[in-house]
Design a protein that fits this description.
By secondary structure, this protein is mainly alpha-helical. The protein is built from 4 helices and no strands.
Length: about 90
Amino acid sequence: MASYSLFIFKKRHSHAGSHTALLCGRDGRDPFGAFNGVWGMMWFLGSTVMGLLYDQSITALVTFGGAMQLMAALLFFWLRGRLATAVEPY
């Protein structure tokens, strides 16, 4: 784990003028950390909702899980098209 963290640190800080330098900005904020924080909170919230649904009805649990997966797939395909036009290839 420590070697992976060191690899990521070196990768982020070794390329002056790269896309990570543009994303991190000058004030030291880290959008990657913000993304991971939101991801973790949503994972916890989803797990809590699924636990509550499990107590009520297995059908409701399966319906919720399927609906969330469908929504994620639709969001992925919608963003894929938008990001393909916004990012320059290397």
